[in-house]
Amino acid sequence: MSFFSRKITTLDVDIHSHLIPNIDDGSQSMKQSIEMIEELMVLGFRKIITTPHIHPNYPNRPEVILAGLEGLQKEIAKNNFEIEIEAAAEYFVDEGFHQQVKSKRLILSFGGKHVLVESSFLNKPVFFESVMFDLQSAGYIPVLAHPERYNFLEGSIEWLEELKSMGVMLQVTLGSIGGYYGNKPEQIGKLLLKNEMVDFLGSDLHRDTHLTFLEKGLKSKEVQKSLNGDKIKNHQFL
Ligand SMILES: [Fe+2]
Q1: What is the mean pLDDT of residues 84-94?
Q2: How far is residue 138's CA from residue 113's CA, in Å, rounded to a whole number?
Q3: How far apart are the first and last CA of the chain?
Q4: Would you say residue 37 has pLDDT above 80?
Q5: How remote is the CA of residue 33 from the centroid of ligand 1, in Å?
Q6: Residue 238 lies in a domain
Q7: Ligand 1: centre distance to CA 143 (Å)
Q8: Of 17, 24, 44, 181, which cross-links 205 as Cys (Cβ 3.0–4.6 Å)?
């Protein structure tokens, strides 16, 4: 029996993707969204929490995201797909987001209180930790998207250990483990899995070219080992 025909442990719930058409750099049409969702179903996903960007380049308001979700849900029902879909957002941490947290304006979360956040890739914002603290004070659990991809870490996981110790959860992207973003993210991602620092895995699916790497990551021995352990918590949102 070849490796790829062996039964794999599925992730069941994806908590990071860009599948609402035409509102960020993810899916650019309903057709693309439906095709990608079908592929996720083939890989064993039963629920998708899609997370459009809320970013200076894509300043999506919650109403826009929720209206887009409704359109996508209708299309999924029309196709008779047996998959649940919800929406939250991927928040870019900057001054604007910090103000939003402090003024207690609506923040899109999943699982009741988890908020997906991302940092700039090149420079660590000096106020990042205080934003995390304020999010926690407002009753949320911050989840840092793709910790393995931040160039400013230069291969060190020290900052990620600090974030973990303050209660920030980490979401590694399957495509990173599959090699899509190059050697460094793959190595850091694998190290985080080995050190049992990963709370969630996600697809961060934007376009169909990501799918091969997503599948490779999902079927990798590192991810399969983690999915058979008790640290990855995606299934809690089923
Ligand atoms: Fe993303």
Answers
A1: 98
A2: 10
A3: 31
A4: yes
A5: 15
A6: no
A7: 12
A8: 17
pLDDT at residue 133, as a whole number: 98
Element holding 58 (H helix, E strand): strand 58-59
Q: In the predicted model, is pLDDT for residue 50 greater than 70?
A: yes
- The DSSP line for 130-175 is HHHHHHHHTT-EEEEE-GGG-GGGTT--HHHHHHHHTT-EEEEEHH
Q: Calculate how far, in angstroms, residue 53's C-alpha sits from the geometric centre of ligand 1.
A: 7
Domain of 207, CATH number, reads 3.20.20.140
In-domain check, residue 159: yes
Distance 74 CA to ligand 1 centre (A): 23
Q: State how many domains the chain has.
A: 1
Q: What is the pLDDT of residues 169-206, one digit of tens each?
A: 999 999 999 999 999 999 999 999 999 999 999 999 99
pLDDT at 90 over 80: yes
How many Å lie between the centroid of ligand 1 and the Cα of residue 90? 6
Domain extent, residue 183, equals 9-232
